[in-house]
Design a protein that fits this description.
Order of helices and strands: EEEEHEEE
CATH class: Mainly Beta
Shape: globular
Oligomer: single chain
Strand order of the largest sheet: 1-3-4-6-5
Largest sheet: 5 strands, mixed, barrel
Strand content: 35-45%
Number of strands: 7
């Protein structure tokens, strides 16, 4: 199965930077995504998490209102509160974030508008030259 989501929207608040138990950086932000088709007036609010250098880049280059495109995988979470109420949510764990706009007074803090994606970890036995672009069938 493929779990890949690509969503575009504006940050609804400034991003937060937290530390995981292993002292890794974790960025948390929320984007507003407009509906499409007959649901153009519908707005979805999506929670996004990112880690490491990507989290630090998001902190540096975005603020409330920044337009971004986020690529990653969807993660379903559920738990039961003490009062017996079930809570569920879907989050997007980002592997790539494209920064499409600068926001007002924060423009001078953004060095460039573009994308940032950390290098993917190599699988066992894989080297940098395993699949050169000119050998791909498409």
């Amino acid at each position: 199965m493929l779990n890949l989501a690509i969503l575009g929207g504006n940050l609804v608040a400034d991003p937060e930077l937290k530390q995981t138990k292993n002292s890794n950086s974790m960025g948390i932000f929320r984007i507003a995504v407009n509906g499409s088709g007959n649901n153009r007036n519908e707005v979805l609010y999506i929670n996004v998490k990112c880690f490491g250098a990507l989290a630090e880049a998001v902190m540096k280059k975005t603020r409330k209102g920044t337009l971004v495109v986020v690529e990653g995988r969807l993660v379903y979470n559920s738990f039961t509160k003490k009062d017996g109420t079930s809570i569920s949510s879907i989050e997007l764990f980002a592997s790539n974030v494209q920064f499409l706009s600068n926001v007002g007074e924060y423009t001078e803090q953004v060095e460039e508008v573009g994308s940032y994606a950390p290098s993917a970890p190599k699988e066992e036995g894989q080297s940098d030259g395993d699949a050169p672009d000119d050998d791909l069938p498409w």
